From TrEMBL:
Record PROSITE patterns: TPR, TPR_REGION
Pfam family, one: TPR_12
TPR repeats: 33-66
Keyword Glycosyltransferase: no
Natural source organism: candidate division KSB3 bacterium
UniProt-listed InterPro entries: TPR-like_helical_dom_sf, TPR_rpt
Gene3D superfamilies found in the cross-reference section: Tetratricopeptide repeat domain (1.25.40.10)
Protein name per Swiss-Prot or TrEMBL: Uncharacterized protein
Keyword Cytoplasm appears in the UniProt entry: no
Keywords: TPR repeat
């Protein structure tokens, strides 16, 4: 994902989509979750939160135990709904972060984010 960090977002999307097409062509599953996650992260960085959510949920369907997917889906949902006080979304983000922390218990930043999120008051 070096191209993503160089700011070549659209090129990164094209490469990830080509990689997915190759996996589908070869009828392969291995690596699909990582590619979908990378694609979701790039969409999120572009502010395309609907697309990011869709591909991250697809990645989670492929591999529900991958910590990177759980964390990034939680971030995308929080960004997508940051201007609302939707309790349902908040609860899903909390659930995703808790699942992530069971896989990565030493991630203090995620633990602090979860603490902040659960301390917020929602209508």
């Amino acid at each position: 994902m070096l191209r993503r960090y160089q700011g070549k977002f659209f090129q990164a999307i094209t490469y990830q989509e080509q990689a997915l097409a190759l996996l589908e062509q070869d009828n392969e599953q291995e690596g699909g979750a990582n590619i979908l996650t990378n694609l979701g992260v790039v969409y999120g960085e572009l502010g395309k939160f609907d697309e990011a959510e869709d591909v991250l949920r697809e990645a989670l369907h492929v591999d529900e135990m991958q910590d990177f997917i759980l964390f990034n889906l939680a971030l995308v949902l929080r960004q997508k709904y940051q201007d609302t006080q939707c309790l349902t979304v908040r609860n899903e983000v909390v659930t995703l972060l808790n699942r992530y922390l069971r896989l990565e218990p030493s991630d203090d930043a995620a633990r602090e984010y979860l603490r902040e999120l659960t301390s917020l008051e929602f209508l």
